[in-house]
Amino acid sequence: MYIVYSLRLAFQSLWREKWINLLSILTIAAGLFMIMLTFFVVYNIDLATKRLPARFSVMIYLDDGLTEKDTKDVMAALKKTDAVEQARYIPKDKALQELKGVLKNADYILEGMGENPLSSSIEIKLKKESVNIASVKKVAADIKKIKGVSEVEYGEQFLNSIHSIKGMAQGGSLSVIILMSAGVIFVCYSTIKIAFYRRKEEIETFKLLGATRGFIRAPFVIEGGMLGICGGLASMGAAFAFYSVLFYKVALTIPVLKILVFPMETYPALPAAGLVLGIGGAVIALGRIRFS
Amino acid sequence: MIHFSNVTKFYEKQAALKNVTFSIEKGEMVFMTGPSGAGKSTLLKVIYLAEKPDEGNITIAEWDLSKLKESSIPFLRRNIGVVFQDFRLLDNRNVFDNVAIALRIRGLLDREIQDWVMEILKMVNLRHKADSFPQALSGGEQQRVVIARAIVGEPTILLADEPTGNLDPDTAAGITRLFKDINAKGTTVVIATHNRELYKNTGRRVFRLESGNIVSEEIG
Hints:
The structure holds two protein chains of two kinds.
Chain A: H1 3-16, H2 18-55, E1 57-62, H3 68-80, E2 84-90, H4 92-103, E3 121-126, H5 133-144, E4 149-153, H6 156-198, H7 200-209, H8 213-253, H9 266-286
Antiparallel strand pairs in A: 1-3, 1-4, 2-3
Chain B: E1 2-11, E2 14-24, E3 29-33, H1 40-47, E4 55-60, E5 63-64, H2 73-77, E6 80-83, H3 95-104, H4 110-123, H5 139-151, E7 157-161, H6 169-184, E8 188-192, H7 196-199, E9 205-210, E10 213-219
Parallel strand pairs in B: 3-8, 3-9, 6-7, 7-8
Antiparallel strand pairs in B: 1-2, 1-4, 4-5, 9-10
């Protein structure tokens, strides 16, 4: 097999043009590092929104003067709703107590109020899959139709903001990933194209001696793959430095950063992505090899 | 072994070969002669498909070149050893590697290549120059490296384009002897040359080309 010879040719070529190749590797590393950063941001936004359903609740305020039976009817109607995971009844007295607990030392503002001004309410948690704008709006509208329900509150603006941030982050990150991947492919393409032209005479001789397309392509594809892997390894080093600085240095002074999560699977993915993009760039650079 | 039937080749609108028809049998050694620009090199090039004929049919052994897929061209070329007029030696590789490349292309293992290349270099009397680079060799030595590279893959056909072009008479005679030895082992040899001394008194067929036509066939 000629694979050993192809490997030898690829390494010789890498070494012969070491400075150009080093520059290419650093450029590839920078591109892959940008992809890693984008992925890191999107991963954490996604994680934050996945945690949202557990904290998200809808408050249902009941009409004043409902009997115990009326309240039970409302609870029964809520439990029949598919989107509702659990419902907790809060009588107006308990609501006042909870408010006092929230106000703590500032509870003097409630002094002088004769009658409890708060309504009885029901706090519901929705099923994970129902915590999205469209679904929550529909559930709120349906609940409002139930007899005895005075008002429904679910933090519409907050939910809108979270989802638009997530949408923007996903769209933006996809653009950055596509752009950076194209950049990495272009760097590999250019490097391999130059190497191919430099060896044009030799390749013509190979063709006349009976070399197949595979024999001609193999050293360049290996070279492209090697450039990609080296770029990936360099970006892996940069990612490790980024992780260490962010979590062991910066997070000491800005503790809120501790909630961020660094996906460890990024490390092996970087050289793998470099390999794929490098080979892709090389294959595009070689194009169709003609024999006559 | 080689059959040409009404083969025509144009460069731009100028015909380099015009309705060329001839046959060469297996194991033969023939010469193509004629003045510069007669079409000798083009005739050789269409045999190993460095150039595609515009009209006519060429059959090389069992290969019908008009029906040959592009991906099969490398396998045709492995059956044809070519001594190029401009040598096409790789300047950044030594003599051994220049010859070995023909075997690497065929996927042979390093140890097989080592033995076989040294054997062929011995045959062309260049074993002692295995580590030299082409620039350090004389014209005759370079020519012998090219011949070694052409025959190392044991082709059934050997084509040589002006193999004694710039060589002195003694060296040319040595190269001619080498071709005869190769032919004696059963390889079909086609030599394009304008050097009359090369084919004089050989008893071989000599085709004379002029302006792309075969104008005569005689025994040298």
